[in-house]
Specification:
Blueprint (H helix, E strand, L loop, with lengths): L6 E4 L5 H11 L6 H10 L3 E8 L2 E11 L2 E9 L8 H15 L4 E7 L3 H9 L3 E6 L10 E5 L6 H30 L25
Parallel strand pairs: 4-5
Antiparallel strand pairs: 1-2, 2-3, 3-4, 5-7, 6-7
Length: about 210
């Protein structure tokens, strides 16, 4: 079954219950719901995005713009929706948001043990630049600090546009697959009730 079409939009107060569901499922020490309200309503440095499938929120992320640096404050995908490319599309939207608000580069912290997240960030040009010892309060794990090259540099622009093109092709392929599935066509382009070859009476051989 293909992933339903997704949309990415700014987080609003009405999104907080859905966001907090993901927060609780993703982090051992989740932010309280009121913290998201404060971020949206009073923090002039903050920008947050949500990913929706229909009316359900399946991912979210946000940044603080600190002078000319966009710092990723939080980023999570609902567990049942992981490994579907949603995190990559959200990160692309965060990179676009960082550029739009005037950031020069993007930074974040990630657990040293979170290889999946580190791999995703590396796809977007993040590289390790340092470690914050015992950064995470739940278990004292160190945080890896990662940052990008200037997001307007030719190399970063090429990387981001290449990923954007790839995601667009993947979305088109998913739409075609969904349309074929709805029409009863298998991936080879045949209808499941279409028969050909020697097992069909009168085709390439005598009837059994």
């Amino acid at each position: 079954m293909s992933t339903p079409r997704l949309r990415i939009e700014p987080m609003s107060v009405v999104d907080i219950p859905g966001v907090h569901e993901i927060e609780r499922a993703s982090f051992p020490v989740p932010w309280p719901a009121y913290a998201f309200r404060q971020e949206i309503e009073t923090n002039k440095l903050a920008r947050y995005l949500v990913v929706k499938s229909g009316t359900r929120i399946v991912a979210y992320g946000g940044i603080w713009l600190m002078v000319d640096e966009a710092h990723v404050t939080t980023f999570a995908v609902l567990p049942d929706w992981r490994r579907k490319g949603i995190g990559a599309r959200l990160m692309l939207a965060i990179m676009d948001l960082s550029r739009d608000v005037g950031a020069r580069e993007v930074t974040l912290e990630v657990r040293l043990s979170n290889i999946a997240a580190r791999t995703l960030y590396q796809r977007f040009g993040f590289r390790p630049v340092g470690v914050r010892p015992r950064y995470y309060s739940d278990n004292g794990e160190d945080a890896l600090i990662m940052t990008t090259d200037p997001i307007h540099s030719p190399a970063m622009v090429a990387r981001i546009e290449g990923l954007r093109d790839r995601f667009a092709r993947e979305a088109e392929a998913a739409d075609r697959a969904a349309a074929e599935q709805a029409a009863g066509v298998d991936p080879a382009g045949r209808r499941p009730d279409a028969r050909s070859g020697p097992d069909v009476p009168g085709a390439g051989g005598a009837e059994a």
